[in-house]
Amino acid sequence: MTFLLSLAWKNLSRYRKRTVITAAALAVGLGLYLFMDAWLMGAETESERNLVWYETSSARILHEDYWDERDRLPLKYCIEDPGAVMAKLGEERIPSAPRTVFSAELVLRKDPFPEDGSLPVRVVALDPELDDGVFRLGETVEEGRRLRPGEEGILIGQWLARDLGAEVGYSLTMITRTRRGYYQTIDAEIVGILNCPNPAVNKGTAFIPLDTADRYLDMEGAVTEINLKFPERRDPDALAAEVESGLVPDFPGLRVKSWRDLAQDYLAFASMKKSATNVILLLVFVIAAVGVSNTMLMAINERTRELGMMRALGMKDSRITLAFLLEAGGIGLIGSVLGVAFGTALSYWIVTRGVDISGLIGDMDIGYRVQGIFRGAWNPGAMVTAFFFGIVLTVFIGFLSTRRALKRSITECLYR
Amino acid sequence: MKRILIRVVIAFIVPPSVFAVSAEDVVRRLEKNTVFETSRVEGSMVINDRFGRKESTFISYGRGTDDMLVEFTSVEEEGMKILRTSDELYLFFPEAEELIRMQGTALKESVIGSDMSYEDMTGGKGLLSSYRADLKGMEDVDGFSCYRVELEAKKDDVPYYRQTMWIDREIFIYRRVHKYSRSGKLLKIVEIEEIREVSGRHVPVRMKLVDSIKGNSSTYFTVTDIEIDIPLDSVLFSLEELTW
Amino acid sequence: MKLWRIAARNIGRNKKRSFLSLSAIAVAVMGIVFFSGYLKGMTGDLVRNVKTFYSGDIRVQHEDYERYGYLNPLHLRIEDFESLTAGIERDESVALTSPRITFPAAVYREEETFKATGLGVDFGRETGFQNLEDYIVEGRMPEAGKNEALVGVGLAREIGVGTGDKVTVMTTTMRRGTNAVTFRITGVVRFPLPVLNKTRILVPLDRAQRLLRMGPSVSEILVKLKEGASPAGTAARLKEGLGEDVLAFKTWDEGSVSYGYIKMATAVYNFSALFFFLLASSVIVNTTMMVVFERVREIGTIGALGMTRGQIVRLFLFEALYLGIIGSAAGAVLGIGIVVPLSITGIDLSNALQGVDMEISGRIYPALNPVLTIFAFFYAIGISGLTSLIPSGRAARIEPVEALRSL
To answer: For residue B42, what are the domain limits?
Structure first.
């Protein structure tokens, strides 16, 4: 066995160019496959992320009666002691962020706005310090700055700002109701404008600090929801159920809804379907496989003489096969390792830094700026699959051609 | 002249607390004057907002503090009816096969686009059960001497946390009301522009409602005809009558 | 002896190797053709959805309507829409029109209220415009003049109603009054876009006009053009011929939020196409390089026989070009042969996720991209040729003796 292994190794280094080219073919193919997979997975999860990062979070803790009335955003069904709940969650290492959500009418006056107007909006009161542990709104602020605790400041989406003709520094009044039902007004100044990929946030939501809402709405420390962040790959429904059963002993009146439950209410414009992207990935796979196999077949073709020689020297067919398989496997191993490394490097670029495709979008005068940074998503499963597939493919091809060569007579082999 | 002079002197010299009347008394008398056992009112509502002017006419029947039936007679609202009983509010539309019950947040909506909401139409529990009243002195409104009463909510069953009412000291009808949000911002202004005497009772016949925050929105109520304490069939305030 | 003839003979001599290189090139080109066609089909799907359900090819509205859109300004309407519609339909580029009224509505049933978007349409026209019949999953279309309605499947589920049930639709009328009318649901519809299924309730146009007290007017007219007609040109022409000053004729990509999404989706796809191209190129590069490297001994031989370096390089270049041309042509033909039939039948991707109504269109229709196909054809040939230069040049530089020695 060791003999065969060292034979394989020697051959690999002897036919360096062949090894390099074939391994490179495999590496490039696998690498690009992984990259495309990460990119398309990013697209696929884009709508999911749009919700989870900016609207629903992974799961939400609500008062048990809130859910049936959630369309009306009732303040009366709230969580009285969010601190205690969040402490419990902290024990389980689940990041959480409290929010109070209510409906209000934004009233603007002609000066400084272009004209008088009023508009119903959804207002989300968030904790500027804790919210970023669960949501990613903080990084979407484009103009002005983020909210500060306790201030009468408001953040609005870029589309809403455009609709209203609003700019940072303008003041407006919100008309709403307190928890007890009194009409309430909040005079606030626009401190920032955000632009995030979620249209509902951009168009119809305004944000104020949680403690400001607490003060104005007589919440007395209560909030309407606590949002949770789960790791991206885990099943949100299962985790939500787990959290709920964990909370119920101490906090019997609470329910936990995963983003899938919440998503029913959030209207997605278009989502890339899994099967649509699968077609693309299949194509990539096929092309990469063709490239690798053709290269390998060419390489092995040339070695028929060598094979004949080995047979002539008395080596058993099975050992010859094994020798060539080991060599093929060696190429596959090198190629797979390089390919996965290459793919990971490329994926890293698009997953963490993302790609600003607004440049590709070009001149778009629709008034609404669409968020231009697009991110990929890690898919460790694909990496593992690709790695093994690379080796399997090369070994398989090696096997096929070796078998073919072995079927011929020795003299035929030598003749080549 | 002499009378006016005496009045002015009294107003300046005599502090308000010397008056035998308390805030609660004023409010009680106000409510007694503004509530009729039965009534039939024909009137109009003129709404001004950023899109223009709209006039709607109606006939409304009232009984006590709780029951009211409004039938719109103008073309634009043709056939629409609103029925209010002690704690419920229903809408009737000629082409709807069921009555629409307005409750919860739906009550916050405005009545046919005016500055009055359905919630403003509910109530009838009496101001003193929900508000604490404070008499802040006397003030002139349109030349009429009025008690200025500050109301602050003590229960959370009313939409306005604070109201200021200027109640005419002679006839005990309010001439102006300011309604405030919880944080004290002025939300709505009600001004009575004309009060007439009908069957020995004083009735506001022209009222203006202004949304003080939105600025460009106001509603005028005008009473063109009113009959008080007439016999009214009880069935008028029933759901069956509404669907008829 | 002519080099190009030698090259041709060389190719025929080692059929297996040639076939491998050729097939790799063919697959690469075919892949590019199919991939670009597929992408075009995906974006085409998005565009079609926007045009069918939101904006048409051209959208006719009161010029101020969009500005005050969030207030639902029904009074900024199109009066005398009948003659306007007739005039639009007379235009040679116009296929269909859809006069309609969109209004926010509250659907009331048994003391519960549900938010919805009401759409008053001419059902006779909508059958053609939206292919409405294809989407009806239950019941039938409402008839004009009757208080009948079509409800999106998601909305129906939420309210808990089906065909035959009655609901009351309450809304703000044009003059900001309130009105409510009871409708009987005659059918349930499943659109390709989930958002529509959750919010839309469709009623006959005349009933919507009555509910909203708008008289014979509409809030917009959508126009569908014939294949190949230019939206911008037609819009301008219609505006000039028919439009009163107060009407705006907007093409589907003007000022539409959905268009932004399409652009973004296109950019996302195009970015991946770039890398796909890279992959296809690498396949060609690999096989071509392999071809040359395998023949180092051959190069040594002919070098020893007197061929100059330049000639050797040119020889291999010709071989690569021949293989490139044949492979590219085969690939292009194959690619076209796959895309064109699929562009007619479509690829059926509808496998609904368990219990969740998250389907987008079930079928994608790839569309042939002629420009890209031709480009890919020449590109593959070019890459093949260029790639051959490196190894052949390198190999030719080695002394013939060395070359002969290597296995």
So the answer is: 22-243
B94 touches chain A (CB under 8 A): no
CA distance C389 to chain A (A): 16
Q: What are the residues of chain C with a beta carbon less than 8 Å away from any beta carbon of chain B?
A: 73, 75, 108, 111, 113, 147, 166, 168, 170, 172-173, 175-182, 210-211, 213
Q: Which of B154, B133, B104 is nearest to A177 (CA)?
A: B104
- Give B91's strand partners: B82, B100
Distance of CA A239 to the CA centre of its chain: 18
Look at residues C208, C217, C231 and name the one whose alpha carbon lies nearest to residue C50: C231
Local confidence band at C207 (pLDDT 50, 70, 90 cut-offs):
very high
How many domains does one find in chain C?
Answer: 2
In a domain, B141, yes or no: yes
| Binary contact (A364, C259; C-beta < 8 A) | yes
Binning pLDDT at 50, 70 and 90, where does residue C255 land?
Answer: low
pLDDT tens digits for range A89-110: 998 889 999 999 999 999 988 8
Domain coordinates in residue numbering, chain A: 2-49+271-415, 56-263
* Domain containing residue B235: CATH number: 2.50.20.10
Half-sphere exposure of B142 (CA within 13 A, CB side): 11
Q: Which of C221, C251, C281 is the last residue of a domain?
A: C251
Same domain, C139 and C276: no
Confidence of residue C256 (pLDDT cuts 50, 70, 90): low
Q: What percent of chain B has pLDDT over 70?
A: 90
Using DSSP, state whether C61 is helix, strand or coil: strand
Average pLDDT in the A257-269 region? 69
Q: Where are the beta strands (DSSP E) in A315-362?
A: 355-356
More confident residue, C126 or A296: C126
Average of per-residue pLDDT values in chain C: 83
